[in-house]
Every structure is written in structure tokens, then in C-alpha cells.
Design brief:
Chain lengths: ~300, ~400, ~80
């Protein structure tokens, strides 16, 4: 199995007529995903690669089962779009939009929690369960995604969308396929952290090991270390930490919005130490990940 | 983005938070003296800088007369703190303080909610209080869906055993702080110290707020009111002309991103992306002993002209000998479009791409066309079988040969 | 002609105002412009932005437009009649 999405997952795309959304629609359809509709207010009646466009989410949800939604609307409209999806009863939202103010994200996440829904992102490229479906831009065109991602026993979680593909490509080349890869988003507040997705991977029989891509900034890695210790995860984890150079320049912002180092606990060095203390292997280079993982799996 | 103390106070005053009766910024010693004459009593002078450690560095002085105030202002205005020149000196009256408190609001990114923090031990670093006197600190999350409510502030303050009129006055202040936090898209709002005067009234002696950069558009009205221009990035150090030019290149064209250009003093120019890829590659260059001339993040499939202009900017930087063009396996950014932009930029700068581009490592979308372009111009490139780390190593090796 | 791309439009097509309008409309990177007399203007500064989307080929008669990859031994994208 995989986590979060399978070939049977039905989803919609909010903002489907936008330039990037049109590409994502095509990529996902070509990969085998089931897109049951799209929403762009005022554009009802149009089609995008055969996917019917509606004015509201409720118009789709009232007549068919909708498991998820990809939200790719401009930042000022993202909160409303997420509210609309949650209130229509959708349980898995992938929020692609970048640069959404933190307060808006907090509101979306709080409402999702109240409605027992899950948000992936914002500022992410979505989810892929290789050979099953993809929900978002991960891997790009279907033919490119098939090159980089392959089905197998490794769960991947990454704060960088691009590095999700890079890491899975490296795993694939080494014969290690992936159960599900999740681009969790690069913002300070995200819907689903490593520690929040771990129980899903722990419960998935197909998954035998985990790779995470992490960055300076925020307490998410420390929280994963806590989860691993307290919940006694069965899964070996290999982590890669980018942005070590940032330790020398506190307060500067590089990479994603979530990377800004605000205190000592946020630095790469400190996080590496926390992860290692919890028994997580930290790779020095991306290309070292497959061998380290195989050792842990043996 | 960080605000100066005087801006922080002006922003908090809009929600009704109490400030000293006179609290004004002077740009010259004479202006400072005039403010002191108006106050007609003992004053405090505080350097307006966007960095901490102001007290230790001598950026806060006291004066009992307008003449003393002028000479203190002269000292402060000349004093650089951690490389930051002051924006001015804030002059305020001094009143007898009965007790100091701390009030702050930040996001708890794991709980994904804002959290109010309160202590009856103000005036010192809140981390120190948390560590040494945990019984003197209280924290309480509050909803982002319900309006920031007084009752939460009341629960917070009363949890430290405070009651009577002190409780009611503090409740109001903490709730106002929480409302400011929400209303102005802040990521930090802090009053430290918050002082209770001998007459029982409260004033904010020092305040510090950070506004989220993502909310600048939404908060344009207040930014304009405070006189904070769109070109003020408020990073840990002010942007260099090179960085300002980089931001302009990114802003001219909405197609894709060529952003976050940051200047370093090395000789290897970097055209790298995207967010996570740039961090990984910058580390890799340094691990191999390379000296980057800049950091940047291209992504979102920038136009040929945008990449071209970025390349020209990097090549125009003094000391740049070659550039390395590298990204993780790309999905929506196109290899051929980046290759065109970079090669065009090198040629328009008057150089030979085969010589000037140390390595091109961007595999992924449209790579066949990209590799054909690179071959034609004799540029060394590699596909996904070469890791980002090894590609960085090849670039650094070329710098050492040259 | 750009550094990487050359766009050729047959004179029969570029002299028809309807074709010119269509080309201006479909190109996502504004390679085509309309002159005051209704004739076709190829905006040289945009030619290298061509994304090889082929929308201009789809919008016109076969043979009317050729998009040439100057970096690929002059290989052309075109629709044959």
C-alpha cells in the first residue's frame, strides 16, 4: 500500500485554469490520477484536458465523491479556497501556493483539525504514490515522474519539492523504490509535519524505511526525534540536512520561508545532533542515502 | 521583517497600548535636547538599530538635563552596533517603576497556533526567565478562528496568581497585544519591559515587533503610515547594490523566479536553484573548498531574459571568474530555457560560454534540448547520473586549475 | 533571428490580417506583433523565449510557420500539408 493517495483517490483542482494548474492537471491525468473536476469562479462550463470546470467546490462534492483537492490559487485567495474545500467535506488538501501569510495558514490548519481533515503544504509539490497516482506537480510530466520515482518500500518526506524528486531519483537509481513521497512544504507552519505523517508510514505494511530532507529553521526535526523516541517507530530513518552554511549567518533568509534561524535550536548543527540522538542516520551527501538505508534495512 | 523600536511602539499604540507620554526620535543632538526640554525631567535615550545587544554596546543612556541629553545623543548617534548605524535616537521621559513584566506573542509552529507569553519578571531575556524561573512564566495558545479574546489573556495573567486591578489592567494590555499580532500579520510582538508605575498605571518601556514579509502587500497601509518603503528588506544586514539589482531583475518579469540574490566575496558565480537545491549546492561548493560569489534561487521556469539578466549581473561582479549552473532534477523549470538564458547572458557579457561556465548540471524536464544547446556552445554539462555534490566538485576543480 | 530559435512565416500568411491576429493571440511569449498596416511583425527580442509549444503551427495552415532550432542543426518544427 501507500499512504494518503492510491489509484482510487478522487480529487479536484482549485484554480484549475491557471497556467501552472493546467500543467499539473495534465501531468496528474497522464500519471493515472482520478481528477473529478476543477474550480475557477466564473469559468463554469469550460474543460481542462477533459476535466469539467465548476464555479464552486460544493457543485462537485454534491454529486460525486471527492477525496482530495489541490489548491493552486494566488496567495491572497488561498485561505478562502482551503476553507471552501474543508467545508465541502474534503479530507485531504494539497496546498501548492507559495507566500501565504502565516496567520492564514494557521487558520486553515485550525479549521482542518476541527473537521478532521488534513492539509499537506502550503508551498509544496504534493504527493506521489509511485505506480498509483500523483496529486500535485512532483516529478513534473508523467514520463519524467516515471523516470525519477518507482514503486517500493521507502517513504519520503521533504521540506523541498525539487529535492523530493532529486532524492527519489537517487533512490530509484539504486533500486530502492518509494511507497509514497510527500513534499511537505517549505513554510514555517505546514499542515503535516514529519512527526504527523510518521504514524501513517508506521501503519503502512509496504513501507520499510524513511528518508527525510530537512533544512535549518523551526522545531520540526526535533519533533520528529521526539516522535521516534516516544512512539518507538519501527522504521529506520535516514535524513539529509541542507543549508549547513546558514549556521554562520543567523537571521538571514535563504531557501524557503521556514528556514530562517531564530535561535540556537534552529541551526543545522543542533538539528543533526538531535536527529542522531534519536537514532536517525544523517547522510553527508544525497548519494550516500541509498547505502546508508540499505545498511539500516539489512 | 524587523521593526525599529519607535515603529513597533507606533504600531502597538494603534491598538491602544500605553506608551510614555513623550516618545520621539531625534536625528541630531539638538533635536534630542529639544525633546528633553519638552519632557522637563529625567530622560532615557535609546539607539534605534535593527539588532540586539543595544544596552551592552552603550546604545542606551540616561540624562537628567537637556544638555546631558544632547551629549548622550551625540555619543549614541555615532555608535555603530554590530555593524548597524542607528536610524536615530529615541528620547522618552523616565518614570518611577514599581514592577516590570514581560508580554509577548509568537507562533508555536508545532501547535500551529499563536501563543501568548507572560511573565512577572520583565526587563531580562525571556529565555533566561524560562530557564531559571519557570514558575514566573505562563504560556497560552489562542485560536486563530475566534477573535483574539480578553478571557484568554485573563486566564494567562491570572495563572501567575495575579488578581485585583493589576489583573484587569494587564488583561487589557495582553489582549491588545494579541489583537495587534493578528491584525498586523506579525510573527513576533513583544513588550519587555512592560512597567507598572507607582501610581498603578502601565506603560510599554520597550517593544519589538516582526512583521511577516509575505504579508507586506496586505499591510501596505500601515507600512506607508510608518514610512517603511518597499525597498527596505529588513534582513539581518541591509541589502548591497548587487542584491538590490538582483531583486529588480526578479521583479521586472513575472515568469518564474530568479530570486534571493545574496552577495558573498568569492570568485565562483552561482546560478542555482531552487529553494532546497540551492541550499544543498551552496553547502556542496563550500565542502569542496570553493568560494561562492553569490547565492541565488532560480525556479518556477524563469524566462530566458530573466536568467540572462541574472547571469549578466553575476558576471559583472568584481572577482567573478566563472559561473556554475546547477539545480536538482527539475520538474517545471525547463533545462533548455535555463541553458538559453545562461548562454545568452555569457555571450552578451562578452565571454565564451565554453570557458566561462564551469559546469552545467540541471537534469530533468526538456533535458534533451538543453543538452543540445550546451553541446553546440561547448559547455561542460552533466545529467542526473552525476550527483549535485560531484557536479559542485567539478566546478571547484576547474576554478583551481584556472 | 534569435540566438537559439528562428521563426519563419510564409509571405502568403504574414500578409493576411486574420492570420496575423491569430498568431498574436496564440503565442504565449509574444513573438508575433501586428504592424499598423495589419502586417506581421516578428518581435526579435522575444524569439529566444519560444517554448516550442507549437500553438502557432496549430493555428495556421500547414507550411505557413516554421520554428527552427538553431542549436539542433537547423531542425525545424513545421506542419506538412
Amino acid at each position: 500500500m501507500s499512504i494518503l493517495i492510491t489509484r482510487d483517490t478522487t480529487f479536484i483542482i482549485q484554480g484549475i485554469t491557471g497556467r501552472e494548474a493546467v500543467n499539473v492537471t495534465r501531468e496528474c491525468l497522464d500519471y493515472g490520477s482520478k481528477i473529478v473536476g476543477g474550480v475557477t469562479p466564473g469559468r463554469a462550463g469550460r474543460e481542462v484536458y477533459g476535466v469539467p470546470v465548476y464555479d464552486t467546490v460544493a457543485q462537485i462534492a454534491s454529486k460525486t465523491r471527492v477525496d482530495g483537492s489541490i489548491i493552486t490559487v494566488p496567495a491572497p485567495f488561498a485561505r478562502d479556497a482551503a476553507f471552501e474545500a474543508i467545508e465541502a467535506g474534503i479530507k485531504t488538501m494539497v496546498i501548492v501556493t507559495e507566500r501565504i501569510p502565516r496567520g492564514d495558514v494557521a487558520q486553515m490548519v485550525e479549521l482542518a483539525k476541527l473537521r478532521a481533515a488534513r492539509i499537506i503544504g502550503p508551498n509544496c509539490l504534493g504527493i506521489i504514490s509511485p505506480g498509483e497516482a500523483k496529486m500535485g506537480g512532483l516529478g513534473g510530466r508523467a514520463e519524467d515522474a516515471r523516470k525519477a520515482f518507482s514503486k517500493g518500500p521507502i517513504g519520503v518526506m521533504s521540506r523541498s519539492g525539487g529535492m523530493t524528486t532529486e532524492i527519489c531519483n537517487t533512490l530509484t537509481a539504486a533500486g530502492l523504490g518509494q511507497s509514497t513521497a510527500v513534499s511537505i512544504g517549505g513554510d514555517a507552519i505546514i499542515g503535516s509535519t514529519y512527526a504527523e505523517l510518521m504514524p501513517l508510514f508506521d501503519a503502512d505494511e509496504e513501507t520499510k524505511g524513511i528518508v527525510i530532507y530537512s533544512e535549518p529553521g523551526g522545531p520540526m526535526e526535533a519533533d520528529l526525534a521526539r516522535y521516534v523516541k516516544e512512539e518507538k517507530s519501527r522504521l529506520p530513518i535516514v535524513a539529509f540536512m541542507a543549508g549547513r552554511f546558514m549556521d554562520e549567518m543567523p537571521g538571514m533568509r535563504f531557501g524557503h520561508a521556514g528556514t530562517i534561524v531564530e535561535g540556537k535550536a534552529d541551526t543545522a548543527a543542533e538539528k543533526i545532533q538531535r536527529l542522531e540522538e534519536a537514532g536517525i542516520t544523517v547522510a553527508e551527501r544525497i548519494e550516500d542515502i541509498p547505502a546508508l538505508l540499505k545498511k539500516r534495512l539489512a | 521583517m524587523r521593526f525599529y523600536e519607535f515603529e513597533s511602539k507606533a504600531l502597538l499604540a494603534k491598538q491602544g497600548l500605553p506608551l510614555p507620554a513623550v516618545s520621539r526620535v531625534a536625528g541630531t543632538p539638538a533635536e534630542a535636547g529639544a525633546i528633553a526640554r519638552e519632557i522637563a525631567g529625567p530622560v532615557v535615550l535609546k539607539s534605534q538599530v535593527l539588532t540586539g545587544g543595544r544596552m551592552k554596546a552603550g546604545g542606551v543612556l540616561f540624562a537628567d538635563s537637556p544638555d546631558e541629553c544632547e551629549s548622550a545623543a551625540e555619543k549614541i548617534l555615532k555608535l555603530e552596533i554590530n555593524g548597524h548605524a542607528p536610524r536615530g535616537v529615541l528620547v522618552e521621559g523616565r518614570a518611577p517603576v514599581a514592577q516590570e513584566y514581560y508580554a509577548g506573542v509568537i507562533y508555536d509552529v508545532l501547535a500551529k497556533l499563536p501563543v501568548m507569553i507572560f511573565s512577572d519578571m520583565g526587563g531580562i531575556d525571556i529565555e533566561e526567565v524560562a530557564e531559571k524561573h519557570p514558575q514566573h512564566i505562563a504560556k497560552l495558545h489562542f485560536s486563530t478562528i475566534l477573535p483574539p479574546s480578553d478571557f484568554r489573556a485573563k486566564e494567562l495573567v491570572s495563572s501567575l496568581g495575579i488578581s485585583g486591578s493589576e489583573l484587569n489592567r494587564l488583561t487589557r494590555i495582553v489582549a491588545q497585544l494579541a489583537r495587534s499580532f493578528t491584525q498586523y500579520s506579525l510573527t513576533l510582538a513583544e513588550i519587555n519591559p512592560l512597567a507598572r508605575l507607582e501610581d498603578g498605571s502601565f506603560i510599554c518601556l520597550d517593544a519589538h515587533v516582526d512583521m511577516e514579509a509575505e504579508a507586506r502587500d496586505r499591510q501596505q497601509a500601515i507600512l506607508e503610515e510608518l514610512g517603511i518603503g518597499p525597498d527596505e528588506t529588513r534582513q539581518a544586514r541591509p541589502p548591497t547594490p548587487f542584491e538590490i539589482r538582483g531583486a529588480q531583475i526578479d521583479a521586472v518579469d513575472h515568469r518564474g523566479v530568479a530570486g534571493n540574490v545574496v552577495e558573498f566575496d568569492g570568485d565562483l558565480g552561482l546560478v542555482i536553484g531552487a529553494g532546497g537545491g540551492s541550499l544543498t549546492l551552496f553547502d556542496a561548493i563550500r565542502r569542496h573548498g570553493g568560494k561562492p560569489a553569490n547565492y541565488c534561487e532560480i525556479g518556477g521556469n524563469p524566462s530566458v531574459s530573466k536568467t540572462c539578466e541574472l547571469t549578466k549581473l553575476i558576471l559583472s561582479k568584481t572577482g567573478v571568474r566563472k559561473i556554475a549552473v546547477m539545480m536538482n532534477v527539475v520538474s517545471n523549470t525547463r533545462v533548455d530555457i535555463v541553458a538559453r538564458g545562461v548562454i545568452k547572458g555569457v555571450i552578451e557579457s562578452g565571454y565564451d560560454p565554453a570557458h566561462k561556465i564551469a559546469i552545467f548540471r540541471i537534469p530533468g524536464s526538456w533535458e534533451q534540448d538543453g543538452f543540445k544547446i550546451l553541446s553546440k556552445y561547448g559547455v561542460e554539462y552533466c545529467d542526473r547520473s552525476v550527483s549535485m555534490f560531484d557536479a559542485a566538485g567539478r566546478a571547484v576543480a576547474k576554478m583551481q586549475q584556472a | 533571428m534569435g540566438l537559439f530559435i528562428e521563426v519563419q512565416v510564409a509571405p502568403e500568411a504574414s500578409s493576411k490580417p486574420a492570420v496575423v491576429k491569430k498568431l498574436v493571440e496564440v503565442c504565449p511569449v509574444n513573438i508575433f506583433g501586428e504592424r499598423e498596416d495589419g502586417g506581421l511583425d516578428i518581435i526579435e527580442s522575444n524569439v529566444d523565449e519560444c517554448t516550442l509549444c507549437e500553438l502557432c503551427l496549430d493555428a495556421t495552415e500547414p507550411g505557413a510557420v516554421r520554428v527552427i532550432k538553431l542549436y539542433d542543426q537547423g531542425q525545424a518544427l513545421e506542419r506538412s500539408a
